[in-house]
Specification:
Number of strands: 20
Shape: flat
Largest sheet: 6 strands, mixed
Strand order of the largest sheet: 1-3-4-5-2-6
Strand content: 5-15%
Radius of gyration: 30 Å
Length: about 800
């Protein structure tokens, strides 16, 4: 029955007790499959099945119990929740995640994404919902869904986030509450946050940080492996490195001693192939190669004679590689046994003078040029363009490009990115990265080499040609002109040329702004030809202000001329008179243009932030504020500036008091703007139709701001308290504290506490309401109004509730939802 339910779910690979029913494997086949896993092949459901069948189940790793406990807790929540597993390359994170699913398959519909499918969040969400709802037509006990995303964000940007939203939307469509838990397994080189309640961390330094109980289990399992595979276990590098009773660094060095100084010319094909495999597995962990591609690379020419096996052809390198079968697709692959081995081999190759740039070029020419498959494109993108995120700041370039640039120079980097741009001729990513490399690698302390900026412009325009009217792609061209201008104005050059560069940058940023205005959010797109983006691109507006502010960075003559023209002084004299009418027209409108962008950022940074836990970089507000001061006048000081109060722990909103808020709203209001209706509410007259005010507030928000704010977190501006309306700053409270004590489990008692401070809790007014999924209603002053839940995971079922009532720019928000007991 389980097979009948899951056979139509094209995007999912479902594991269930009957998955391998009827499959017969002979002893030799079982031995080979499990030996490959211990060598380092990626885990598959079959590995867990055979391990149990052989009486050698895998060790339940450190972190296993926490993940399992979180999942079992979330299964009562009848909504979409997420558990994160962050694991360093080679630490066994994927195996741990699949082990949890394997052990929970009787109580959950356990599934992961199928191999080689189009990663469309909407399709995946529909399949997950169908998987759960089809239980209505079976006699099986209703079970929640448990979905594993194994490093999915590396395959498609922000897949975990967009999929979670798609699942919420699907649940609302069927008007039902079903527990769906996402186990988001993410490979990360570095960990920064370690205090997240729903996150488990798995470190690669296994032998140094192993719990005693885990080590004992590994010791016992190791003895069983040695007994069953007595002639092979020394080559089980994947297992031995994770085992932890050895020094993994010393072990890796020993097994990699087959790397000897390579021949620079006429290197054997096996040496070339192994260098490629090691390089790719280091800089794009988790990548693998098709076995038949590797075999074709080894064969210089077709032969009618029997070819040696792949292992025989690879010679001394064969022990460091695994050729394995993916039983989901029945396809054979090759990979390096462990990321630590790949890292060590690449280090040795570099120490012996082998050019990593040449190895990368060899990979592009021999594995990508003839068959530019989606998986190879993604691997190449990871190697050449994927920038590491370190504490919220991204590296300028990918790790590989940084290493090659430092060791082999700029020319090799540009050669590689040009080659990738040619091979993947329809992709804008590679020419965009190449343009960035050209303008960012210029030494600003030296005189300008115009060729660098010309090349940057050429490749930026090529990226735009491949993906027209995409504002994020267009931003690269604008950045080229901006950096050219900044470089030029470091020295005393011709003022007219500086103004020409400034005009080019401003024009490019304006075109980027227009493209951003036309882009739609994912949820709004019906026409496949429309550019989509989950977030609004404000970089054009910011870049415009950065170029405008450049006229004031020094007292050089060129800047004085720029100042005169940009503020339309002496426009008919000297330099200004030489400018074309088009440029002078733009300059005359400069003050208004700057003010418009300042007002945008003032609202954008006050009403929203990237998400609940992160703030926007302070330099955005600094540019907007300083530019307004230079061109328009002293900006209003209604709000505290975050960058001026670095020593003060700021709350979730910049608004300090209700008076400040009302002053800000008054300045921003227009006819039929959401600010206007907020003022009506804050200055409420008894007898006004609150439901009508709230409805118009929401409609005005959708008209004015929805396109710009999209998926950003809307900051709560004020709350309903026993003293009336108050800002969060006045209450000394943050949204995260408001949610503490929320009763997420319908069966949970109300014995939990609310916010941290009793006096704050007493100031808040608890509002009565009701959930009629997916709608949340509030009963306020003899009026029923619709409110948004601050935490959708608290909307579990229909019923009477109570909550704290707050407002963001869109309208009313329900915090700390608790179900009321009937009777």
């Amino acid at each position: 029955m389980a097979n009948a339910i899951t056979e139509e779910l094209s995007s999912l690979d479902v594991v269930h007790p009957d998955k391998f029913k009827g499959r017969v494997f002979d002893r030799e086949k079982i031995h080979h499959i499990q030996a490959n896993f211990y060598k380092g092949a990626p885990p598959q459901w079959l590995n867990f099945y055979l391990a149990e069948k052989n009486g050698m189940p895998f060790v339940k790793r450190d972190g296993y119990e926490k993940i399992k406990s979180l999942i079992e807790t979330y299964q009562t929540r009848r909504t979409v929740t997420m558990v994160n597993l962050l694991h360093q390359p080679g630490s066994g994170g994927s195996t741990l995640a699949m082990q949890v699913l394997w052990d929970l398959q009787k109580d959950f519909w356990c599934t992961k994404l199928a191999t080689n499918v189009v990663l469309d969040p909407n399709v995946i969400a529909k399949d997950v919902i169908n998987l759960v709802t089809k239980q209505n037509n079976t006699k099986n006990r209703r079970k929640p869904a448990l979905l594993l995303l194994d490093n999915a964000d590396m395959l498609k940007d922000n897949l975990s986030k967009t999929l979670k939203k798609a699942l919420f939307d699907e649940l609302n469509e069927i008007d039902n509450s079903l527990p769906i838990i996402i186990l988001n397994c993410v490979r990360k080189a570095e960990f920064t946050e370690r205090d997240l309640n729903n996150t488990v961390f798995l470190n690669a330094k296994l032998n140094m940080e192993r719990e005693m109980w885990e080590k004992e289990e590994f010791d016992q399992h190791h003895r069983s492996v040695m007994k069953q595979y007595e002639n092979e276990h020394e080559k089980f590098h994947g297992f031995n490195i994770i085992y932890g009773d050895i020094d993994s660094a010393e072990y890796t060095a020993n097994v990699c001693n087959v790397i000897v100084p390579p021949k620079i010319k006429r290197r054997p094909r096996k040496d070339q192939l192994f260098a490629i495999l090691a390089l790719v597995n280091k800089y794009a962990p988790g990548s693998d190669f098709l076995l038949d591609q590797c075999e074709k690379f080894l064969q210089k020419s077709p032969s009618i004679h029997r070819q040696p096996s792949f292992e025989e052809q690879m010679g001394q390198f064969s022990d460091l590689l695994i050729a394995y079968t993916n039983f989901e697709t029945n396809t054979d692959y090759v990979c390096v046994a462990h990321p630590m081995i790949a890292n060590k081999c690449v280090q040795l190759f570099r120490d012996h003078g082998l050019s990593m740039g040449e190895v990368t070029y060899l990979f592009l020419q021999n594995f990508c040029a003839k068959i530019a498959s989606p998986s190879l494109m993604q691997t190449t993108k990871t190697m050449l363009t994927m920038r590491e995120d370190r504490n919220g700041d991204k590296d300028q370039f990918s790790t590989l490009i940084q290493h090659i640039s430092k060791g082999e120079g700029k020319i090799m980097c540009t050669r590689l990115m040009k080659e990738a741009s040619t091979i993947f001729g329809d992709r804008p990513t590679f020419p965009q990265a190449l343009a960035r490399f050209y303008y960012l690698m210029v030494d600003k302390s030296l005189p300008i080499i115009e060729k660098d900026y010309i090349n940057a412009e050429i490749w930026a325009r090529e990226a735009i040609r491949r993906h027209p009217n995409n504002s994020f792609i267009m931003d690269t061209l604008a950045q080229v002109h901006k950096h050219h201008l900044l470089h030029y104005m470091r020295r005393k050059y011709c003022p007219s040329k500086a103004l020409r560069l400034a005009f080019l940058a401003i024009k490019a940023f304006q075109e980027e702004e227009m493209a951003a205005e036309k882009e739609e959010g994912n949820e709004e797109v019906k026409d496949g030809t429309v550019n989509i983006s989950p977030t609004f691109n404000f970089l054009g507006k910011l870049g415009y202000l950065q170029v405008a502010l450049q006229g004031f960075v020094s007292d050089q003559n060129v800047n004085n001329d720029w100042c005169d023209v940009s503020t339309h002084k002496n426009i008919h004299e000297g330099l200004g008179f030489q400018l074309s009418r088009k440029i002078r027209k733009i300059m005359r409108n400069f003050e208004a243009e700057v003010n418009t962008r300042f007002e945008f950022f003032e609202k954008y940074l006050t009403y929203t932030k990237p998400d609940l836990k992160r703030d926007d970089p302070t330099f955005i507000r600094e540019y907007a504020d300083k530019c307004c001061e230079k061109y328009v006048g002293t900006p209003p000081r209604v709000l505290k500036m975050k960058f001026e109060d670095k020593e003060i722990e700021m709350l979730e909103t910049d608004v300090t008091t209700l008076t400040d808020l009302q002053g800000f709203l008054l300045r921003q209001k227009t006819d039929h703007s959401p600010e206007l209706y907020h003022l009506h509410l804050l200055q409420a007259n008894k007898g006004q139709d609150l439901s009508n005010v709230v409805m118009k507030m929401r409609q005005a928000y959708n008209t004015m701001y929805e396109k710009f704010f999209r998926s950003r977190y809307l900051v709560p501006l004020y709350m309903k308290s026993t003293k009336g309306w108050q800002t969060l700053s006045e209450l000394l409270l943050q949204p995260s504290k408001l949610e503490k004590g929320a009763c997420n489990d319908p069966n949970e008692t109300e014995g939990r506490t609310g916010p941290d401070h009793r006096d704050i809790e007493e100031c808040l007014m608890r509002i009565q309401g009701r959930i009629e999924r997916p709608i949340v209603l509030a009963f306020l002053e003899d009026t029923v109004i619709e409110v948004e839940p601050h935490n959708k995971e608290q909307v579990l079922r229909n019923g009477a509730i109570s909550f704290y009532l707050g407002f963001n720019i869109k309208g009313p928000v329900a915090f700390n939802i608790k179900y009321e007991h009937s009777g």
